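Render this sequence as a predicted structure.
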Amino acid sequence: MTEPLRIALAGLGTVGGGVIRLIDANRDLVARRAGRAIEVVAVSARDRAKDRGVDIARFDWVDDTTALALHPAADVVVELVGGADGPALALARATFSAGKSLVTANKAMIAHHGLELATAAENAGVALKFEAAVAGGIPVIKGLREGAAANEIARVYGILNGTCNFILSKMESAREDGGGRDFAEVLAEAQALGFAEADPSFDIDGVDAAHKLSILASVAFGTQPAFGAVAAGGIRHVLAADIAEAAALGYRVRLLGIAEASAGGLFQRVHPHLVPLDHPLAHVTGATNAVVAEGNFVGRLLFQGAGAGDGPTASAVVADLIDIARGEFGPPYAMPAAALAAMPAADSGDRTGRAYLRFMVADRLGVLAEIAAAMRDAGVSIESLMQRGRGGDGSVLVAIVTHEGPERAVAAAIKALTGSPSLVGRPLWMPLLG
């Protein structure tokens, strides 16, 4: 009889508890698909006494998380501690030193240390799996690494953060109901419902999505992970008025992560975009994630589903364990770590496209002329300009859509206007998804 695959599990939070519940609930099905049973034998967390809704008394308890790697009964370590460094990274390194495979949901650790860990796993002849690190239960890593392996991927992009998409969707539905809700109000609701952390900065400022994008880019393009080169921007400055303007133009606002590899280098950016209504991403609402990959033979692929939560993320973790139980290792990034290309960061100023620009300005003569002059001097061609009514502080909204042109020209126009006494608050720039 084939021996079970025995698991040491670090981290008993939402996802850790979900992994135990999934293995318990689907034990027979998992065993048939894996070719052998999968069993948790040891666990570690900060608080042994905490009630997690699952029975952990049946497992060995290990106080020192790093020591899980040396547990004599464990074949594989599952790391669900989180954090780019600290105990998670120490455990990952110890796991490979012990000659054992690692499954992780830790996007920050993979984004920052993925190349080192992939090299260590390959040198030890073991697996490094991180499906759960990107888009929760959506099998996008496996889809790119295996299903689309024969394709040259031109671009990978999508909605990578459920918190931001929940907020933007709520702002959007309020407009459709005849009202309007600004960012701060909807963020407070997201926090009350558990969709946003007490400190939501990682989500709303684009850092979480940037971690995921750097992983996707590496798998899609065969490049070394380059989180430090991701230009990350968030949604905290999006107004209800921007949602309304986008709708009037036939678009919806979405926080997108976009990565492209070209002769000019690797482009990676997280930023709010205007997405046309005929694009599938415009219809992704709530806390859902969606990723689009464009292959030269397979065409456009869309991966969509729950991007977080105990069930979807646990599903991805156990799917990786099933692969390991079958003996399906393979290089973590679809090719050996030594073959991953070190690409320079592309100059975003060379990118061309249309853009939405929003200014809150003082309601006085000459302001529109000042904005138009800045656009003219920077070489930005204006396709349309809208001026909306006075706000409570006496300010007026001016929204511009540009013709196709280089991003550096738009950046120069915004820079020229920054600090102008005519502006009330900072301008907002959002590319139009082409």
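Summary. The longest strand covers residues 251-262. The CA atoms of residues 328 and 401 lie 50 Å apart.
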